[in-house]
């Protein structure tokens, strides 16, 4: 339902009045400091020492999510020479780093235990599921993109090229496949088992076991075990995570826990937050409606203009065809007259030739008769 400017300002004034008179109670952050994730939730362990940068995971992700084909094929490894990030139509990328040795690292949504994107989303378009994935409901999204600002890993991307129905996109950990009892596409496609899927607690034990067994191969750090309150995507590395493009300045507090103090200290912000965001939501929807109306008007105008141009082209074509037809007729008439004139001239020449031939024949006949007469007379004289 559309919210008028008058109602929006009225609600805003009421909220301010309630705050100044003490009607609002002290607000506290929603973070639960003892939350360690859902028991039995799933995750993925990425052992960067095993990754060979084959991009099979990228290809599988593209296929599973039915994304557009990239400009360069997946067997073109020259793309690894650039440091890439996820995009609206690319949910995961593999990057190459050269520190002590060459290392390949897969990047995607880390599926935080307490996601910053979900904490920032006031319409609850993002949700952490008990199974592990952080999922997104496009039908709830209002396009504010606070999730993109909030994410410490800079993962969510926005479909800027879709004017009417843009969405925020990211890796889903193949949540639909998990519901069917299948592995995430990238995990299933990895030829070196650099990606392992399982329960998060079990994956941490596997990671710790590898570190203990091969202390010279791994640094003593399971990335994602505690960062930002913990993530469902975990990493092992043979060198510092900072050298392979991962942040080490995030701390161990989750996003909701980090914001709980400031929000409780400023109750007016908490009180006005729903009202302000409701206004933003209404403005966003109004903007979308206006954009659609403008697009419809533009399409209608384009149709009218196209019809007019088409009709004009048809008329021009008819005129051109008539001119060409008249010119063709005139040409044929002229040609016929010229041929008739030539025929008459030929007939005259033929008639003249016949007359001359007749005269010649008459002369020859007369000459022959004369010679015959002379011969007869000569014969008589001799007798």
From TrEMBL:
It is found in: Cell envelope. GO terms for molecular function: 4 iron, 4 sulfur cluster binding; metal ion binding. One of its GO terms (cellular component) is cell envelope. Residues 42-72, 132-161 form the 4Fe-4S ferredoxin-type domain. It comes from the Bacteria. The keyword Metal-binding applies. Signal peptide: none annotated. Keywords: 4Fe-4S, Iron, Iron-sulfur, Membrane, Metal-binding, Repeat, Transmembrane. Residues 341-359 have a biased composition (Basic and acidic residues). Residues 341-383 are annotated as: Disordered. PROSITE patterns: 4FE4S_FER_1 (PS00198), 4FE4S_FER_2 (PS51379), TAT (PS51318). It holds the Pfam family Fer4_11. NCBIfam families: sulf_resp_HmcB. PANTHER family: FORMATE DEHYDROGENASE, NITRATE-INDUCIBLE, IRON-SULFUR SUBUNIT, IRON-SULFUR PROTEIN. This is HmcB: HMC redox complex, transmembrane protein. It comes from Desulfobacula toluolica (strain DSM 7467 / Tol2). The gene is hmcB.
């Amino acid at each position: 339902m559309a919210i008028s400017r008058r109602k929006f300002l009225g609600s805003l004034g009421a909220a301010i009045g309630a705050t100044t008179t003490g009607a609002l109670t002290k607000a506290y952050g929603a973070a639960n400091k003892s939350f360690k994730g859902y028991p039995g939730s799933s995750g993925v362990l990425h052992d960067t020492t095993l990754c060979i940068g084959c991009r099979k995971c990228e290809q599988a992700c593209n296929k599973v999510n039915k994304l557009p084909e990239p400009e360069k094929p997946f067997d073109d490894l020259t793309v690894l020479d650039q440091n890439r990030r996820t995009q609206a139509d690319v949910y995961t990328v593999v990057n190459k780093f050269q520190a002590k040795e060459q290392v390949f690292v897969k990047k995607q949504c880390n599926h935080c235990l307490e996601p910053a994107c979900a904490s920032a989303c006031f319409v609850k378009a993002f949700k952490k599921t008990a199974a592990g994935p952080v999922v997104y409901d496009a039908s709830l999204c209002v396009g504010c993109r606070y999730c993109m600002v909030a994410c410490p890993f800079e993962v969510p991307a926005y479909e800027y090229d879709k004017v009417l129905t843009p969405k925020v996109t990211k890796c889903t950990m193949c949540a639909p496949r998990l519901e069917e009892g299948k592995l995430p596409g990238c995990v299933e496609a990895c030829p070196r088992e650099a990606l392992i899927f399982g329960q998060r607690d079990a994956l941490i034990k596997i990671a710790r076991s590898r570190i203990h067994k091969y202390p010279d191969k791994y640094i003593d750090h399971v990335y994602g075990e505690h960062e930002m309150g913990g993530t469902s995507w975990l990493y092992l590395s043979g060198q510092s995570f900072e050298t392979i493009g991962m942040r080490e300045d995030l701390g161990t507090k989750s996003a909701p826990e980090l914001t709980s103090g400031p929000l409780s200290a400023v109750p007016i912000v908490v009180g006005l937050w729903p009202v302000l965001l409701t206004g933003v939501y209404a403005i966003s929807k109004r903007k979308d409606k206006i954009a659609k109306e403008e697009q419809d008007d533009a399409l209608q105008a384009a149709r009218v203009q196209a019809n007019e141009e088409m009709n004009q082209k048809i008329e021009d074509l008819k005129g051109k065809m008539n001119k060409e037809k008249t010119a063709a007729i005139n040409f044929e008439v002229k040609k016929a007259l010229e041929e008739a004139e030539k025929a008459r001239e030929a007939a005259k020449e033929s008639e003249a030739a016949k007359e001359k031939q007749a005269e010649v024949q008459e002369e020859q006949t007369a000459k022959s008769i004369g010679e015959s007469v002379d011969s007869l007379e000569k014969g008589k004289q001799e007798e």
